[in-house]
Design goal:
seven-stranded mixed beta sheet, acyltransferase, 8-amino-7-oxononanoate synthase activity, EC 2.3.1.47, AONS_Archaea/Proteobacteria, pyridoxal phosphate binding
């Protein structure tokens, strides 16, 4: 064995020691992350670390991940196409089911074409880094998702950050900085706060300032707009670039971008996160297509209506609960953050909730800004009124007990 490959028993590499020290530093800050062990389907009930609990941490907003028609579509596709694509879409992985799914999405989104990616992260990184370069300007909301942030970084474009949902500040950034091409990018419904971007104002600003508008509809797809087609459609806004995911309300996996045919063809030729990866399994495309048919059906309308009702009921109960009322957002949403503040208190409350049968995961820096750690409750159409009442009761008791050891100002 060469000296390069040999190791001595009882020694550790410098790299291992480095990782351990950095992990200890993360732990000292109260930011060490672990992965909960989940069993079974992500329905209203879920088994987490061997405890059965009400599920308020899944993005399965419409309950479609366990829908019989969606499961059957996946099984049928697995029998027909196999369980894996085994090649890039530009080589031998472009199954016909992807074309069917993309045609359906384009028609649903009222665009010329659509393109499916393996995940929302791959889509945002691939879209932004392909369309923009060092000669260009990107104007981005300060609370945009990490995938948007990373896409901006990879593009090497100048990036100007504007205050959250502040259209005037966004316009000032477009005026202030030069760029060969200009792109304004925002989520439509924000993943950690549940609030909505002022898309009509942003669209008007982009037209006035000669900028493209990109809207990430990850948490609005299937929920907002006509037939669940998104917040942009609800507000009659037509962004040049419409991105959305298939792994949240749709209940499966993957993501899409919809727009002009020339945009889609350009991304097929330039998007590295599409070109240099194995295509998603055809069975996920078939399952997503089945789920989208449900979303556009009367059943989908009923599920959306129930989700809205649950969001309003949950928000009302939170606002009426003394121990957390100041920590709740002003507007009801299927994403309901309860901002605690300190990371340690947030995670203790989350653990206490799970101990009492409610799974609401704590969200900390760097996912959210420092000092704004929160429990992020995500609602489902399958939740009952009794589920909502129990969640608020358990949260109230946990918050009242644990925050006795912290300043009341911690509940932001």
């Amino acid at each position: 064995m060469s000296a390069r490959c040999s190791t001595s028993v009882g020694t550790q590499s410098p790299e291992k020691g480095q990782w351990e020290e950095e992990l200890k530093a993360i732990e000292r800050k109260g930011l060490l992350r672990t992965m909960p062990l989940v069993s079974g389907m992500p329905g209203r009930l879920i088994m987490v670390d061997h405890r059965v609990a009400l599920n308020f941490s899944s993005n399965n907003y419409l309950g479609l991940a366990g829908h019989e028609k969606v499961i059957e579509a996946a099984l049928d596709a697995a029998r027909r196409y196999g369980v894996g694509s085994t090649a890039s879409r530009l080589i031998a992985g472009n199954s016909e089911i992807f074309r069917q799914l993309e045609d359906f999405i384009a028609q649903w989104k009222r665009t010329e074409a659509a393109l499916v990616f393996g995940s929302g992260y791959q889509a945002n990184v691939g879209i932004i880094s392909s369309l923009m370069d060092e000669r260009d300007l990107i104007v981005s909301d300060e609370l945009n998702h990490a995938s948007i942030i990373d896409g901006c970084r990879l593009s090497r474009a100048r990036v100007a950050i504007y205050r959250h949902v502040d259209a005037d500040d966004a316009e000032q950034a477009l005026k202030r900085y030069p760029g060969r091409r200009k792109l304004l990018v925002t989520e439509s419904v924000f993943s950690m706060d549940g609030d909505a971007a002022p898309l009509q104002d942003l669209s008007f600003i982009c037209r006035r300032r000669g900028a493209m508008l990109m809207v990430d509809e990850a948490h609005a797809t299937g929920i907002r707009g006509p037939q669940g087609s998104g917040l942009a459609a609800e507000l009659d806004v037509i962004p040049e670039i419409q991105m959305g995911t298939l792994g949240k309300a749709v209940g499966v996996a993957g993501a899409y971008v919809a727009g002009e045919k020339s945009l889609i063809n350009f991304l097929i030729n330039t998007s590295r996160s599409l070109i240099y990866t194995t295509a998603p399994p055809p069975m996920t495309a078939a399952a997503a297509l089945a789920a989208l048919h449900i979303i556009r059906s009367p059943e989908g309308e009923r599920r959306r209506a129930q989700l809205y009702e649950n969001a309003n009921e949950f928000h009302r109960r939170l606002k009426e609960t003394r121990s957390v009322s100041n920590a709740v957002s002003a507007v009801a949403s299927h994403i309901a953050p309860v901002v605690i503040g300190p990371s340690d208190a947030t995670m203790r409350i989350s653990r206490e909730c799970l101990r009492n049968g409610v799974f609401a995961h704590g969200i900390r820096y760097p996912t959210v800004p420092e000092g704004s750690a929160r429990l992020r409750f995500t609602l489902m159409s399958d939740h009952t009124k009794e589920d909502l009442a129990k969640a608020v009761s358990v949260l109230s008791d946990a918050a009242a007990t644990i925050t006795l050891h912290h300043s009341r100002e911690c509940l932001c």
